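To: structure desk
From: M.T.
Subject: fold request, one chain
Message: Could you run this one when you get a chance? Sequence is below, nothing fancy, just the single chain.
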Amino acid sequence: EALEAYNAAMKIDGNNAIYYCNRAAAHNKLNNNDQALSDCFRSIEIDPNYSKAYGRLG
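Reply: Done. Structure tokens follow.
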């Protein structure tokens, strides 16, 4: 459900680093590691100062 919610939110605002970072956490919980990494990197690309995205990479 979380993935669906973040996907819907991202259709409205596709340049929101928080959405990508939170979706990365959801992917991580589902062991979708490649998708989680991709979302973390996209989050950082959008906002290089968003420290939470760097933390999720660790």
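Reply (cont.): The domain at 2-57 is CATH 1.25.40.10 (Serine Threonine Protein Phosphatase 5, Tetratricopeptide repeat). Let me know if you need anything else for the meeting.
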